[in-house]
Amino acid sequence: MAVENRKKKKNKMSVPLMIVLVICVVVLGVSIWQLSGIFIEYKKGTDEYDKLQTYVSEEPVEEPVTADTGDGENEDGTEAEGDTEEQVQRVAISELQAQNSDTVGWIQIPGTQISYPLMHTGDDSYYLNHTFSKKLNSAGSIFVETLNNGDFSDLHTIIYGHNMKNGSMFAGLKEYSSASYLVTHPNVYIDLADGTHAYQIFSVYEAEADSDSYTIGFAPDETYEEYLKTIKGRSLYDTSVTVTKEDSIITLSTCTKHGEKRFLVHAKKIY
């Protein structure tokens, strides 16, 4: 009799254990399904942007290329101008624009995964979850602030991109938390319709989403000069790069790991 009671108790205890086990299995299955969906979406975004790399013909150069027009006199007797700066067309911007008219350029940081088309539209939220091909995807696109001019003619132009878990888009910006990383990756290259332009990084730091670091619409005056001093002073370390009110700058912005703050990289135009 005592043996039978023990068996009954054992059987009764196995029921809740089975329920817990089933719940765990279901939760695990749902989690795996959700993760697989995320990874598949990540891969679709990555594959799309990898294919677009074919529109980039070469690596950016440290200095703009010059064209030798010769010395002395021209054939008509006028004085020759000598060497002139020639903008290199290394990205087929016009071909990209034929596929998506929102394309204004290409951004690249050599030695990193950051090499993407630049989008600009009247709605800042659109490219948060749409790729270059306008497909819905959490990777989104790298895009220029709506209130900025798409030709980078503003003194301050802001560029946004997601901090993706697979390291794509602007996830690599966080590496600039280390001063040694800046030494090996000092410049950002922006290709526009008129050729390649280089920007030298002068400040990196975390900021609030509503920080005055996002101020645009400057004129080359004392207000702009004070703004530059402020954002340079916020840098996590001294970059030894000077910036003045005559300089045009760009800001690369992405979310931090938990999305509570933003990680900003400021760079000034050097050509």
UniProtKB/TrEMBL annotation:
<feature type="region of interest" description="Disordered">
    <location>
        <begin position="57"/>
        <end position="86"/>
    </location>
</feature>
<feature type="compositionally biased region" description="Acidic residues">
    <location>
        <begin position="70"/>
        <end position="86"/>
    </location>
</feature>
<dbReference type="Pfam" id="PF04203">
    <property type="entry name" value="Sortase"/>
</dbReference>
<keyword id="KW-0378">Hydrolase</keyword>
<keyword id="KW-1133">Transmembrane helix</keyword>
<dbReference type="InterPro" id="IPR005754">
    <property type="entry name" value="Sortase"/>
</dbReference>
<keyword id="KW-0812">Transmembrane</keyword>
<dbReference type="InterPro" id="IPR023365">
    <property type="entry name" value="Sortase_dom-sf"/>
</dbReference>
<dbReference type="GO" id="GO:0016787">
    <property type="term" value="F:hydrolase activity"/>
</dbReference>
<dbReference type="InterPro" id="IPR009835">
    <property type="entry name" value="SrtB"/>
</dbReference>
<keyword id="KW-0472">Membrane</keyword>
<feature type="transmembrane region" description="Helical">
    <location>
        <begin position="15"/>
        <end position="35"/>
    </location>
</feature>
<protein>
    <submittedName>
        <fullName>Class B sortase</fullName>
        <ecNumber>3.4.22.71</ecNumber>
    </submittedName>
</protein>
